């Protein structure tokens, strides 16, 4: 089932997600709905706060980046198969140079800005079967993970912009929260009274 994506301005996007266990109600159905919602909106990631749940769950399907001819073959091959569920994720360590890349967000449509993020991250999480995992991610995979991880920490990519950029985007962000935006996927806006 395709769920509405929560728009910028909703307080759930600012909540720190709670850890969950394998007894979380209807977890497999929630994961399937989130995957369907992410693909329907042409996203490469989706975090539970974006569908109104302040829990530590997100998913990534980076396969659309595998078509990017500017990337090294090895990174394109990795991204093609980088399709995972992350539960109770933690970033253990970040290293190497931070680098800029234009990011967008399904909860903040039609806004893309350069964001600085670390090149390499060490992570721990459990998968959908609650099997503990440890991995090292680099490049775009690390960036996508960090973006989704920020969501479960109550952080949006716009928080990482300069104060000047934030001032320039203020009206656009207000319009998103009021539903004054044209998107081709279902959204739920905080400032529209029913």
What does this structure look like?
With 194 residues, the chain is an alpha+beta fold. The chain has a single domain (5-188), classed as Peptide deformylase (Peptide Deformylase), CATH 3.90.45. Helix content is 26%, strand content 31%. It has four helices and seven strands. The protein has a five-stranded antiparallel sheet with strand order 2-3-4-5-6, with helices on both faces. It has a two-stranded parallel ribbon with strand order 1-7. The radius of gyration is 16 Å and the shape is globular. The model has no long low-confidence stretch (mean pLDDT 95).
Question: Tags for this entry?
Answer:
single chain; 194 residues; Peptide Deformylase; 5-stranded antiparallel sheet; two-stranded parallel ribbon; globular
Query: Average pLDDT across residues?
Result: 95
Rg = 16 Å
Describe the global form: globular
CATH class: Alpha Beta
What is the number of domains? 1
Residue runs with pLDDT of under 50 for 5 or more positions? none
| CA distance, first residue to last residue | 22 Å
Order of helices and strands: EHEEHEEEHHE
CATH superfamily: Peptide deformylase
Show the helix and strand layout.
Layout: E1 5-6, H1 27-40, E2 45-47, E3 57-61, H2 73-80, E4 83-105, E5 108-126, E6 132-138, H3 139-152, H4 163-177, E7 187-188
Parallel strand pairs: 1-7
Antiparallel strand pairs: 2-3, 3-4, 4-5, 5-6
Would you kindly provide a brief summary of this structure?
26% of the residues lie in helices and 31% in strands. It is an alpha+beta fold and 194 residues long.
């Amino acid at each position: 089932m395709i769920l509405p994506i929560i728009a910028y301005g909703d307080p759930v996007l600012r909540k720190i997600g709670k850890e969950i266990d394998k007894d979380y109600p209807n977890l497999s159905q929630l994961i399937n709905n989130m995957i369907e919602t992410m693909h329907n909106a042409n996203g490469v990631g989706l975090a539970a706060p974006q569908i109104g749940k302040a829990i530590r769950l997100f998913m990534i399907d980076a396969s659309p980046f595998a078509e990017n001819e500017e990337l090294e073959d090895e990174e394109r091959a990795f991204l093609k198969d980088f399709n995972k569920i992350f539960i109770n994720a933690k970033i253990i360590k970040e290293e190497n140079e931070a680098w800029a890349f234009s990011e967008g967000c399904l909860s903040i449509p039609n806004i893309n800005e350069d964001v600085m993020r670390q090149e390499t991250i060490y992570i721990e999480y459990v998968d959908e079967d609650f099997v503990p995992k440890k991995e090292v991610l680099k490049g775009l995979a690390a960036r996508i993970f960090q973006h989704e991880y920020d969501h479960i920490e109550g952080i949006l990519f716009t928080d990482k912009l300069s104060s000047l950029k934030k001032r320039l985007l203020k009206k656009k962000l207000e319009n998103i929260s009021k539903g004054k935006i044209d998107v081709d996927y279902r959204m739920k806006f905080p400032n529209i009274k029913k």
